[in-house]
Design a protein that fits this description.
- The protein is an alpha+beta fold.
- Helix content is 33%, strand content 20%.
- It is built from five helices and four strands, in the order E-H-E-H-E-H-E-H-H.
- A four-stranded antiparallel sheet has the order 2-3-1-4, with helices on both faces.
- It starts with a strand and ends with a helix.
Amino acid sequence: MRTVFAFPAGERADTVALLAGHHNGLYISIEDEGDGTLYVDWNQDELAALEKAVGHRPGWAVQIDISGRIDGTAEVHDLLDVLLADGGVAFDDYTTHAWTLAEIQDGTTVDGLRFFDFRTYRR
């Protein structure tokens, strides 16, 4: 299972409404820092990159899990086009970079990897 976290700039309720009926094949949940589920496996570098990009540590995020049975790249990109349209950042399993929507759409590379670039990472 691969995981992407999205930290949309908008309100939580608006994000929940955006998620209704979207993106079959992806497992989507809202994770909250308050119930201890959000930053469980995050390292200090990831948290620092998030706080620098957003200006604070967000209290919630959209967790997107992608089964290894599907590629998932197009589905994840489509979902992030919606979730990050008004700002925010996303994190994948392959870098500690806080990805903006523009970077994702432009195919920007960080440490030789694009966003959600599991193929290159595995090489």
